[in-house]
Design goal:
Bound molecules: adenosine-5'-diphosphate
Strand order of the largest sheet: 6-9-10-3-11-12
Largest sheet: 6 strands, mixed
CATH superfamily of the largest domain: ABC transporter type 1, transmembrane domain
Helix content: 55-70%
CATH class of the largest domain: Mainly Alpha
Strand content: 5-15%
Radius of gyration: 35 Å
Number of helices: 19
Distance between the termini: 72 Å
Length: about 575
């Protein structure tokens, strides 16, 4: 629900605590700056009658004084603005950091549902907007509000009856401002959502551009884009129109207010309640109110827009998070790699189990091939082993230790994944293999050797310091896979999860990857989602999954002899490999 309360921003206040010293100095400068306004009003009260009376010496004296006060005020303003900018920027940096940290903990299932473009937009544009609001609030809204209080306070001291008249007019303005504010905020949130959607579409479009071109689907994509930018324009237009209406309406009310006060002031002078000096000061004060009021109105609008952005940032924090670690986790040494599933049941929706009553014992060092139709639950099984998800019933034990009693990070140190599609961050090959872990250059090189990647890396112009471009686009698919294998074996995990690539490499590249894999598998328990005939033939055991249940298991030869499901599956899934092996047998 939209709300114009500043509660969202109030929750950011604790972030200011570490910067109290700077804030205090900034606040002192601010007080000096604000304190100059009543002084200037007083001087205006002296100046205008002196001008009227033609007292030139007095005029020069007052002007000199006014220049000194202005000078002090501007220096104080510089101190205020420069001292407060630091803390304001730090708060927005802290906010961005916290949100990113939360994002890293969002459950993977929930993360997949969020669009990457939308998330990027939130962490850049929305965060910028919030940052701007924090800066403006500290550096502009607060001094403007204080200026309003100081100037109006002095005016009231000069003539409280006139001020009462102003107070009677003010609520009308306030109601109008907040009415517009709420509307502007609603319109802004709608328009921000449209920009996010646009960013989402753009991210998809850039990723899918080759595919779009291959299907000659450019007009279709262009249409989708046009619809989105049109919706975006309309939403923006509604916001602009509201703001366009707001300024003249409020400006007009202000003018009426000032003219009314001038009229009333004339009446007060006539009745002898106010002298010329007092009235001059009063009018000067009235003029000094215009600036802070207009700043407060504009900032209030931006504040509303910032609220919408803050809410969208905060929504990330509300996404479901990965299950927390046990309070007193077991500490793990290097594991052997015995793996035991007992009656495991799991569903992304607990009412629709994806894995059912799954029991399986694997001895350390065995290679188990998982086969089964798509959607059978093979990847889900991996996600349980990596502690992305937790079994709802039954237990999974590594060397007899229940996974749920271990820290997720500890588990992931022992369980390494070689995904079907290798993704790398841009950076050097050293960094890609290390992937944030502490490891010496020698350890990285050893891992690369094991993965049969060392020789090709050394041939690259800068060896291990060669920069990998986004998604590793400057090395071949097979080389990237070998980097992924090195990345997995660095740290010597006990359990290797291997999701075999489906896209075919040429024979030479394939042989190089297979050599790397074979070496990486040695001395480890391996679970492999198999897509190649050779893999199932070499596995110690094949487990056939269907609808989340183990329907058969055994060696390739046993299962082939038994016929049935496995044989069908094999013939469908490995058809190309089978044909290949038949041709080679025939030769
Ligand atoms: P496989 O790897 O054997 O192809 P998966 O483990 O990917 O099968 O999927 C098993 C089932 O779980 C499928 O029905 C799939 O739609 C569902 N599924 C997979 N991932 C998710 C997810 N993040 N959220 C909800 N359902 C999912």
């Amino acid at each position: 629900m939209l709300s114009s309360s500043p509660a969202g921003f109030r929750r950011l206040l604790p972030l200011l605590r570490p910067h109290l010293r700077r804030l205090t100095w900034g606040a002192l400068c601010m007080l000096a700056y604000v304190g100059c306004w009543p002084l200037l009003m007083h001087l205006a009260g002296q100046l205008i009658p002196a001008i009227g009376a033609g007292e030139l010496n007095r005029v020069i004296e007052v002007i000199a004084l006014a220049i000194s006060v202005f000078l002090i005020q501007k220096v104080a303003q510089f101190g205020q603005d420069s001292l407060l900018a630091g803390p304001a920027l730090r708060v927005s940096q802290d906010l961005r950091r916290n949100v990113f940290r939360q994002l890293q903990r969002v459950e993977l299932g929930a993360l997949e549902k969020l669009s990457s473009g939308d998330l990027t937009y939130r962490l850049t544009e929305d965060a910028d907007r919030v940052s701007e609001v924090i800066y403006k609030t500290i550096q502009d809204t607060v001094p403007s509000a204080l200026q309003l209080v100081a100037v109006f306070g002095y005016m009231t001291w000069l003539d409280w009856k006139l001020s009462v008249a102003i107070i009677l007019i003010a609520p009308l303005v306030a109601v109008l401002i907040s009415l517009f504010g709420a509307k502007v905020m609603a319109a802004t949130e709608r328009s921000q959502n449209k920009v996010s959607e646009l960013a989402g579409l753009l991210a998809e479009a850039i990723e899918g551009l080759p595919l779009v071109r291959a299907f000659a689907a450019e007009p279709w994509l262009q249409d989708r884009f046009e619809t989105k930018i049109d919706q975006h324009r309309q939403a923006r237009y509604r916001t602009y129109r509201l703001v366009a209406l707001q300024h003249p309406v409020i400006g007009f009310i202000e003018v009426i207010g000032i003219l009314t006060v001038l009229g009333l002031g004339a009446a007060r002078i006539q009745s002898g309640d106010l002298d010329g000096q007092g009235f001059s000061s009063y009018v000067a004060g009235l003029l000094m109110l215009i600036d802070p009021i207009s700043h407060l109105t504009t900032n209030f609008n931006e504040f509303q827009q910032g609220q919408a952005s803050l809410k969208r940032l905060r929504d990330i924090e509300r996404e479901p998070k990965e299950a927390t670690d046990p309070v007193e986790p077991l500490t793990l040494g290097r594991l052997r790699g015995d793996l035991d599933f007992q009656g495991v049941q799991f569903g992304y929706d607990p009412n629709e189990p994806v894995l059912r009553d799954l029991s399986l014992s694997i001895q350390a060092g065995q290679v188990i091939a998982l086969v089964g139709p798509s959607g059978a639950g093979k990847s889900t099984l991996f996600s349980l082993l990596l502690r992305f998800n937790r079994a709802q019933q039954g237990s999974i034990a590594l060397d007899g230790h229940d996974l749920s009693l271990l820290k997720a990070r500890d588990v992931r140190r022992q369980v390494a994944l070689v995904p079907q599609r290798t993704t790398v961050f841009s950076g050097t090959i050293f960094e890609a293999i290390r992937f944030g872990r502490q490891a010496s250059d020698d350890d990285v090189i050893d891992a690369a050797r094991l993965a049969n990647a060392d020789s090709f890396i050394r041939k690259l112009p800068e060896g291990y310091n060669t920069m990998l471009e986004e998604r590793g686009s400057n090395v071949s698919g097979g080389q990237l896979q070998r980097i992924a294998i090195a990345r997995a074996v660095l740290g010597n995990p006990a359990l290797l999860l291997l999701d075999e690539a489906t896209s075919a490499l040429d024979a030479e590249a394939e042989a190089a990857v297979q050599l790397g894999l074979r070496r990486a598998m040695e001395g480890r328990t391996v679970l492999v989602i198999a897509h190649r005939l050779a893999t199932v033939q070499e596995a110690n055991r094949i487990v056939v999954l269907e609808h989340g249940q183990i329907v058969d298991s055994g060696t390739h030869d046993e299962l082939m002899q038994r016929g049935g499901r496995y044989r069908d599956l094999c013939e469908r899934q490995f058809i190309r490999d089978l044909q290949g092996s038949e041709t080679s047998n025939a030769e």
